[in-house]
Amino acid sequence: MKRHTYRVELAYDGAAFAGFSPVPNERTVASTFHGALCRLAPGFAKLAAGGRTDRGVSATGQVVSFIYRDPVDTEAIRSAIDAAAPDALIALDVRKVSNSFHAQFSASARRYVYFWPDDGAIDVARVDRSLAALLGRRSFHAFSRNTPRGQSPVRLLTDATARRVEVDGRPFVRFDFSSHGFLRRQLRVLVPTAIRESEIADDEALVRIAESADRRRSALPADPKGLVLTKVLY
User: Fold this and answer.
1) What is the pLDDT of residues 144-165, one digit of tens each?
2) Which residue from 80, 91, 107, 216 lies 20 to 30 Å from 36 (Cα-Cα)?
């Protein structure tokens, strides 16, 4: 059967959706996307996302791929997406690509940012040093939650930094992370754990927690609204 593959870069407000993946009786990014593009033309299938975003998590650089049985105009696809949830979802780029492209499996890295409200009391330099010590390939089991049975907890963390910024005049600590892939809730647990551990003079604290593989030693997950998927690399 002939097929035509499309790649779309998306931005969306996580507060408006119950995550990306379909959830019965709730509005998700996938269900909104699916409804809009099924109405546009027949033969829509195989929707895939480059990065996972749970309930409340936003994106400024999500990438999805899907196929149509027949060719569809890219501007028509863009218009259908933009009209589906104009308050919360926008198509940044739409293009027809090779049938070998898959938004999830073709990706080489994902980048996320977490914005933590800054009360001025956080030792950001120490947080940044402790994150730097965590770079490399290791088990992040201690910082994950709800890991699927059989999934390896080993990930290669290639970037992890913390710095102070202002967003719309409000102070935040901005955390930047990059990896080929992340475990469930890994970043939402890692951020508050790094902040908590910065209260002691130990730049290797996060490494020791990781090596313990003990989830009881890490903090509770932070609010999902602070997390943003900013880029999927190919």
Assistant:
1) 998 888 899 999 999 999 999 9
2) 107
Answer yes or no: do 71 and 150 share one domain.
no
Contact yes or no for 99/44 (Cβ under 8 A): no
DSSP class per residue in 154-205: EEEEEEEEEEEEEETTEEEEEEEEEES---TTHHHHHHHHHHHHTTSS-TTH
What pLDDT score does 1 carry? 67
Q: Domain end: 97, 127, 150, which one? A: 97
Q: Which residues in the chain land under pLDDT 70?
A: 1
Together in a domain, 93 and 159: no
Residue 104's pLDDT is what?
98
Q: Are 62 and 232 in contact (CB under 8 A)?
A: yes
Q: How far apart are CA 40 and CA 145, in angstroms?
A: 38
Asked if 70 is an active-site residue, the reply is no
Condensed to tens digits (0 to 9), the pLDDT of residues 160-212 reads 999 999 999 999 999 999 999 999 999 999 999 999 999 988 899 999 999 99
Identify whether the C-beta of residue 189 lies closer than 8 Å to the C-beta of residue 114: no
CATH code at position 176: 3.30.70.660
**Is residue 103 a part of any domain in this protein?**
no
CA dist., res. 94 & res. 63, Å (int): 10
pLDDT reported for residue 201: 81
**Structural domain that includes position 201:** 109-233
Q: Of these residues, 54, 128, 203, 223, which one is catalytic? A: 54
- The Cβ of residue 131 has, within 10 Å, a number of other Cβ atoms equal to 23
